[in-house]
Amino acid sequence: MTVKIAVAGASGYAGGELLRLLLTHPEVEIGALTAASSAGTLLGTHQPHLAPLAGRVLAETTAETLAGHDVVFLALPHGHSAEVAAQLGPDVLVVDLAADHRLANPADWQRWYGGEHAGQWPYGLPELPGAREKLVGTKRVAVPGCFPTGGSLALAPALAAGLVEPDVTVVAVTGTSGAGKSLKPNLLGSEVMGSASAYGVAGKHRHTPEFAQNLSGAAGKPVTVSFTPVLAPMPRGILTTATAPLIGDVDENTVREVYEKAYDAEPFVQLLPAGMWPATASTLGSNNVQLQVGVDADAGRLVVICSIDNLTKGTAGGAVQSMNLALGFPEATGLSTVGVAP
Ligand SMILES: NC(=O)C1=CN([C@@H]2O[C@H](COP(=O)(O)OP(=O)(O)OC[C@H]3O[C@@H](n4cnc5c(N)ncnc54)[C@H](OP(=O)(O)O)[C@@H]3O)[C@@H](O)[C@H]2O)C=CC1
Ligand SMILES: CC(=O)N[C@@H](CCC(=O)OP(=O)(O)O)C(=O)O
Asked: Which ligand is closest to the CA of 199, given by its number?
C-alpha cells in the first residue's frame, strides 16, 4: 500500500531530513511540499542535496494545499503546527515535529511556550515504556524534541528498574542544525567555529518539562531534571551525558543487564560493548541511538553516554518510525542504523 505524504516546512532542516528519508521509503509517494516566505520558490534552492526533488515548487502552507494526503508531516515552528493540524481531517495521519502536542500538562505548556495548550498526542518515542502501543494505529503523533530523545532513552531503564534516585542531571552537546535555519547572531559561523558554549542554563531550557514527563513516566514517580545544553561547532549530532545517584551498591554488570533487557529487541538502540563510548560521528545520518553505561563507584553515580543525530532519530527519523507504526508498516521501513563516517 503506497501512501501519499505532504511535508509542511519543507524548506527547513527538519523538513529536508524528512524528505531525505522519505525519498527512499518504499511505501511513500511525495505530494505537496509547503513553506511560508519560501512559497513559490524551488525546493532545490533550499535543499540542494535532495536532487530528485530539485524542481518541485514550494506551496503555501494552507489546509487546501495539505488536503488530499494520507499523511501530513508538520515541520513548522512551535505554536504554528497546532493551528494547521486543527484544520486537517480526523482520517489524515498528522505527524507533528514541533512541541505543540508533546506535553500533558497545560500549565507546563503555558510556562515554557505560552498561549493555549492544544492537547497531548501519542508521543513518537516508541522505545519508552508504554509508548509503542499508543502509536499503533493512531492518527496523531507528537514527535519528541531532540534533547529529550537521547536523554530519555539514556535514563529511562535505570529509573524504571529503580537503580537510581529520581533526581537526574543531563548535559547534552549539540550541533547547530538543532536551532533550525534561523538567522541569529549566536549561530553565525564566526561565533560557533572554534567555540563551545552553554545556553538555557540552570533550568531555563524548554525541554526540561518534556524530560521530566518522560522520565517520571518511566520511574512511576516524579523525577527532577537538571538539564544543560551546550552548542558545539558541528552541523549535526547530539552527545548526551546523563547521570543520577545510584541507590545502594549497584555494579556495572547489574546496570548492563538492565539496559540489555530494555533495549536488546529495539531496532534503533544499540548498547555498545563494554569499554566503547558513543561518538556523534558514528550515528550521523542514521536512526541509530548508541549508548554506553558506567558506574562511578566513588561518586555513587550512574553515568550514561548517548549519541544520536538530532535531525534523524532526534526528529525526522523518529517521525518516520512513528508513521510506520501508525500505518502498520514494519517499524524500520525506510530507516537505517548505518551512519556516514568519517
Ligand atoms: N532542527 C532540529 O534538530 C529539530 C527540529 N525540531 C522541530 O521541527 C520544527 C522545524 O524545525 P527546523 O526545520 O529546525 O526549523 P527551520 O527554521 O529550519 O524550518 C522551519 C520551516 O517552517 C517554515 N515556516 C516558518 N514559519 C512558518 C509559518 N508561520 N507557517 C508555515 N511555515 C512556516 C519555514 O519556511 P520558510 O522557509 O518559508 O521560512 C521552514 O520550512 C520545529 O518545530 C522544531 O522545533 C524538532 C527536533 C529537532
Ligand atoms: C542548537 C539548538 O538551538 N537546539 C534547539 C533544539 C530544538 C529541538 O530539539 O527541537 P524542538 O524545538 O522541536 O523542541 C534548542 O535548544 O532549542
From this structure: 2
Q: Which pLDDT band, with edges at 50, 70 and 90, does 1 fall under?
A: confident
Complete edge-to-edge strand list for the sheet that includes strand 238-245: 197-198, 224-231, 167-174, 238-245, 301-308, 289-296, 269-271
Contact 319, 166 (CB under 8 A): no
Q: Does 332 fall in a domain?
A: no
Mark whether 26 and 97 lie in a shared domain. Answer: yes
Ligand 1 pocket (Cβ < 6 Å) reads 9-15, 35-38, 61, 75-78, 80, 97-98, 145-146, 177-178, 180-182, 310-311, 314-315
Statement to judge: residues 190 and 306 lie in one domain: yes
Residue 335 lies in a domain: no
- CB burial of residue 274 (10 Å; 0-12, 13-18, 19+): exposed
Tally the domains of the chain: 2
- Identity of residue 260: E
Q: Is residue 95 classed as helix, strand or coil in its secondary structure?
A: strand
Model pTM score: 0.97
* Domain co-membership, 265 together with 286: yes
**Catalytic entry in 6, 75, 88, 146:** 146
* Residue 50, all three cell numbers: 535532495
Same domain (yes/no): 151, 273: yes
For 133, the domain range is 3-144+313-327
Tell me whether residue 146 is one of the annotated catalytic residues.
yes
ipTM beyond 0.95? Answer: yes
Is residue 80 located within the same domain as residue 205? no
